[in-house]
Design goal:
alpha+beta
């Protein structure tokens, strides 16, 4: 068995919540819209890198958020694309 899923509709939120608790020292998780971002602010003048994708094999892109890698990740639901609104919201966040 690879993983436990309580409810398919809650899979993404529960995965992001667990990921945030496990790696709270380097990332922060936002819900409604869903995105993961670096806990530290991006340097002035640096272009922020944001990635998005489905969560068919866990919220994959979140694992690449950190120093020297992605600044944020916007995961979609299982086997679906990420929501443009979450990417737009993240790109306009004050800490981006």
């Amino acid at each position: 068995m690879k993983k436990f899923i309580n409810n398919v509709d809650d899979f993404l939120k529960e995965s992001l919540n667990g990921f945030g608790k496990a790696h709270g020292d380097i990332i922060k998780v936002n819900f409604e819209p869903n995105f993961i971002s670096r806990k530290t602010k991006t340097k002035e003048g640096k272009v922020s890198l944001i990635s998005g994708g489905g969560s068919g094999h866990e919220p994959m892109h979140g694992g690449f958020v950190g120093h020297g890698m992605l600044d944020a990740a916007c995961p979609g639901f299982v086997f679906s694309a990420f929501c443009f609104f979450s990417t737009y919201s993240r790109s306009n966040a004050s800490s981006c």
